[in-house]
Amino acid sequence: MARSQRPAAVKAAPSLKSKVARLKRAKPKSVRSKSITSKSATPKSVRSDSTASNSTKPERAEPKRTAPGTAGKKTAVSRQAPIELYYWPTPNGWKISIMLEECGLPYVVRPVDISKGEQFSPHFLAISPNNRMPAIVDPQGPGGRPISVFESGAILQYLGRKTGRFYPSGERARVAVDEWLFWQMGGLGPMAGQANHFRLYAPEQIAYAIDRYTNEVNRLFGVMDTRLASRDFLAGSYSIADMACVGWVRLAERMGQELARFPHLERWFDTIRARPAVKRAFAIRIAAASAVDMKDPNVRAVLFGQTAR
Fold first, then answer.
1. Backbone phi, psi, residue 108, to 5°
2. Which of 1, 58, 163, 303 has the fewest Cβ atoms surrounding its Cβ within 10 A?
3. pLDDT digits (tens, 9 = 90+) for 132-186
């Protein structure tokens, strides 16, 4: 592949170091989280400033979140400064929005337009040195001090430990969750991503590559189907392992798969997508994402032409 030119520089936002210092000086009461009542099934759309101008200023999701059913109550969750979620609507991004919604943690969405190269900005690289989203900044990390976390699996584990939810503390149960979480990180995600690329985005249709990755996704779906024949969820109880996988199964058709051929997997998928928190997570809208032209050579160079810098 020809070496592509580096995408146009994105205007740098304040550094993570300065943000962390500012958060450490801030009083907890200075950040308030607006409430969502439990009557709301979906969040309001995220307004994208990038559709109106070339500004790369991070956007805010309206409104911020609190735990379902706690609107108007003075709870520990509602007093927390919101977690910043650096996000784009992909299976990896959905993992974290699902977990945040399930845990009822207040958060604000910071869209990272990967089609424009915003993932290469110095501000974002200070948070995610692999120039990939998702990533988070938690103002109330360990010891009450801010912390940034990148890599979706690491974020899920961090949020599980932070909240004590969907990531069991017992070693035997935790091992089962870790097995299927890493199975997704090392298998389902990469193979599904390659199938999606060669089926939809490759400049030429390469039969061997299409068959190779489509068949591997089929095999992996079969592994899940067999596992789910004897249990409701991948690790027994609903966990971060299920959250990690559901977004990829959501795109089954794009990867040449028919869910009806995997009845236990289809039942699992229908169960998870019916959860209110999952509905809210999937409903987050980034206007700029739907406007991306995947045939634009500049977009393709940013997404598919990256090399060491």
1. -130, 135
2. 1
3. 999 999 999 999 999 999 999 999 999 999 999 999 999 999 999 999 999 999 9
Cα(203)–Cα(196) distance, integer angstroms: 13
- Within 10 angstroms of residue 282's Cβ, the number of other Cβ atoms is 18
Residues in the chain: 309
Those residues with Cβ within 8 angstroms of residue 270's Cβ, 6 or more apart along the chain or in another chain? none
| CATH code of the domain made up of 171-278 | 1.20.1050.10
Q: Tokens 């990256």 appear where?
A: 306
Distance CA(30)–CA(164), nearest Å, equals: 26
Are the CB atoms for 127 and 16 separated by under 8 Å? yes
Tokens linked to 34: 């607006």
- Any idea which residue has 């409104």 for tokens? 63
Rounded-to-integer distance, Cα 225 and Cα 232, Å: 11
How do beta strands 107-111 and 83-87 pair?
parallel
- The single-letter DSSP state of residue 30 is G
Instruction: Report the CATH number of the 19-166 domain.
Output: 3.40.30.10
Structure tokens at 71: 């609107």
| Dist. CA 261–CA 266, nearest whole Å | 8
Do the Cβ atoms of 30 and 268 come closer than 8 Å?
no
Helix axis angle, 152-163 relative to 91-103, nearest 10°? 10
Encode pLDDT of 247-279 as tens digits: 999 999 999 999 999 999 999 999 999 999 999
106 closest CA partner among 134, 57, 140, 154: 140
- Cα maximum dimension of the chain: 59
Amino acid identity of residue 102, one-letter, is E
